[in-house]
Every structure is written in structure tokens, then in C-alpha cells.
């Protein structure tokens, strides 16, 4: 039981760090993929990305045996769809495809950062 609580705590901390990093990476969209009406500040992106990340709360149901992978998959897809809508609204895009592009670029950069950190820190922890 203590391991699960520790996992929830670590998961919460990682989610908060991920939210902050993802918001910053999305802010890049205001510089590299702007439309004429695009204007957003970092605080606006923190709020919209935070709201779009809220479906991730259902991941807590992953502690129920047998539901972990399904809950994670559903939450991830739901969060991605909400993230694209949030980016489109926050950056005042008319094109959903441009919002998808910003999210894909941010996801690739975040994945590379995560892989680098995992390689430096020695990889993911092994279950006992």
C-alpha cells in the first residue's frame, strides 16, 4: 500500500512538472507557427493547458488491478484531444491542423527530454 501511495505522489509531481514543461513548449507556437491574430502570454497557456490536462485525473483509477493500461490509454487520448483544442483557443488559431502541429512538435521535444533524463538517471525503476 505504501508503494502505491509513493507512486501516486511521484506521479503527481511528474504531472505538475510535465504541465509546466508542456506549457513552455507550447508557448513556442507563438513564435514559430503564429497566425496574424496569434497573441498569448505564458500565463494564458498555463491555464488552458492545465484545464486540458484535467482528464489525467482519472489515471488514479489505474490502481485498480487490471484497469491500469486501459485507464492510462483513455486518459491520454482524452488529454491529447483537449490539448489540441486548448492550444487552438489559447493561440487564437483558426486552423486545428496548426494546433496539432504545435502539439506534435511539443510532444517530440518533451519525449526527447524525457529520454535524455531517463538515460542520465539510469532508466525507469524496476518493479520488485
List the SSEs and their pairings.
Layout: H1 2-27, H2 29-32, H3 42-52, H4 68-90, H5 96-121
Helix pairs in contact: 1-3, 1-5, 3-4, 4-5
Textual characterization of the structure:
The model has no long low-confidence stretch (mean pLDDT 82). The protein has helices spanning 2-27, 29-32, 42-52, 68-90, 96-121. The chain is an all-alpha fold. The two termini are 14 Å apart. Helix content is 70%, strand content 0%. The chain is built from 5 helices and no strands. The radius of gyration is 16 Å and the shape is globular. The chain has one domain (2-121).
Low-confidence stretches: none
Average pLDDT value? 82
The helix fraction, in percent, is over 70%
Number of domains: 1
Number of helices: 5
Can you tell me the overall shape?
globular
Largest sheet: none
Number of strands: 0
Percent of residues in β-strands: under 5%
The first-to-last residue Cα distance is 14 Å
